[in-house]
Design a protein that fits this description.
alpha/beta; Glutaredoxin; 5-stranded mixed beta sheet; two-stranded antiparallel sheet; 9 strands; about 30% helix
Length: about 150
């Protein structure tokens, strides 16, 4: 589990268009990286749409927003196109970033335990330091909450 003040883990992942995005290319600029369980599910769709609706505000602040799940690039592209999302969706199919950020955990649903992504968001400053680490977040209204935190940096 990562905490405020920790150095954000490095990552290098393909997006929905199979272009690589890495933490090194973000150096010098703050960014938001949020992890979500699965493309095209109700909570994940709500979260993606809400971030999309606020993207111009994040852009005005010079803050990139990245969404990460273990879905494939093809799945991300379909999800993005279906809902008109403009969040950059990164495919962590092997789960390295999920492990590094501490979001791949055992979850219990209906009495059944299995591994999955715990919906989590990290706000990282231009030096790669975590300013906010939020685990097990609820999707509704979360993007607005994150925007307010970014404005407070």
């Amino acid at each position: 589990m990562l905490n405020v003040g920790d150095q954000a883990p490095e990552f290098n992942l393909p997006d929905a268009d199979m272009s690589m995005t890495d933490s090194e290319s973000l150096a010098g600029n703050p960014y938001v990286i949020y992890f979500y369980p699965k493309d095209d599910t109700p909570g994940c769709t709500m979260e993606g749409i809400e971030f999309t609706e606020l993207m111009s505000d994040f852009d005005d602040l010079g803050v990139a927003v990245l969404g990460v799940s273990k879905d494939t690039c093809v799945s991300h592209a379909a999800f993005r196109d279906k809902y008109g999302l403009n969040v950059r969706l990164l495919a962590d199919v092997e789960g390295q970033a999920c492990e590094a950020f501490g979001v791949w955990r055992e979850k219990e649903k209906n009495g059944e335990k299995k591994m999955g992504i715990v919906r989590s968001t990290f706000i990282v400053d231009g030096n790669g330091v975590i300013k906010h680490a939020m685990y097990d977040v609820k999707p509704k209204g979360h993007a607005e909450q994150v925007l307010e935190m970014v404005r407070g940096l």
